[in-house]
Design a protein that fits this description.
295 residues; alpha/beta; three-stranded mixed β-sheet; 12 strands; flat
């Protein structure tokens, strides 16, 4: 299959300023100060639908805030299983210490610039600096593609099977929360398929389970081992339903199904593959741009 440059590139030349204007509510930045304990961003991630928490220092210059880092589900999950005294660690470690370096980008850059930067960093979130920082993540990119007719037309040229080659990692209902988090961290994945239900456990599921309720917070404080040694079968509402798609479905169909799903991912019927926001944004862009280059 050959996709010409004129067909593929215009959508990727879109200004990030336009994307932010179209999806302002999804680009809102939830920020914490560098000195706050990491329990604060953990609670935010557990109770709000945000892709990350941004660590912002406004003390040095209120008119020019310094973006020091970002904290996502993976960073909090790591702290849950890598420390023996979990609560003390969450209260003593600062947001600055727990964060990873931010991927900064200017709003006058293009969607292509954003996707290249995400691909190079391996992190599906970038921060637009300024007095009011904004966050751009992969789901926002997909929402933007969905409202653009040329992008959806481009997506019809590809099949789901071409973007679901990633090995699917599965766990049983008898796995513990601790074992599941270790597996995600060791394998570098954010999602596990729970058998036989075909539901999804993600790093954000774990954060919601641990930090999204008073009961979870009390257990993290008083008896974290009891919480982390609960089996996946006990997580109930925190196991999310993916979209089920056919290998021959085109990517426009897949995109709509993914955004409508609880788990924000798709499983091929039979469980032989998974498609995530990374596949529909970064991998698609890489393939389209490679095909558009002159031979």
């Amino acid at each position: 299959m050959s996709v010409s440059s004129s067909e593929s590139w215009p959508i990727y030349n879109s200004s990030l300023k336009n994307i932010i204007a179209d999806f302002q509510s999804f680009c809102s930045c939830v920020a914490v100060s560098p000195q706050q304990p990491v329990i604060v961003p953990a609670t935010i991630l557990g109770s709000m639908e945000v892709s990350c928490v941004v660590v912002v220092d406004r003390d040095k210059s209120p008119d020019q805030p310094v973006i020091e880092g970002v904290i996502g589900g993976r960073e909090i999950a790591h702290m849950l299983v890598k420390n023996t005294d979990v609560w003390r660690h969450l209260m003593r470690v600062t947001a600055r210490e727990a964060s990873i370096p931010p991927s900064l980008i200017a709003e006058d850059n293009t969607l292509a610039d954003l996707l290249n930067q995400m691909s190079n960093s391996g992190y599906g979130v970038a921060v637009v600096g300024g007095l009011r920082p904004r966050v751009l993540d992969l789901l926002t990119v997909l929402r933007y593609l969905r409202i653009k007719s040329p992008a959806m037309a481009m997506l019809t040229k590809y099949r789901a099977a071409d973007f679901s080659s990633r090995k699917v990692l599965s766990i049983g209902m008898d796995f513990t929360v601790r074992e599941s988090v270790h597996l995600m961290l060791n394998k570098g994945v954010r999602r596990l398929i729970v058998e036989p239900s075909k539901l999804i456990l993600s790093d954000r599921s774990v954060i919601g389970f641990c930090f999204g309720s008073i009961q979870g917070m009390e257990m993290i404080r008083d008896n974290p081992d009891a919480l982390l040694d609960q089996t996946i079968g006990e997580l109930g509402e925190f196991l999310l339903k993916p979209a089920i798609i056919d290998a021959n479905d085109n990517l426009a169909t897949v995109l709509n199904a993914l955004l409508a799903s609880e788990a924000k991912c798709c499983l091929l019927d039979g469980g032989d593959g998974i498609i995530t926001p990374w596949d529909l944004s970064i991998r698609l862009y890489q393939k389209v741009s490679a095909q558009a280059r002159p031979m």
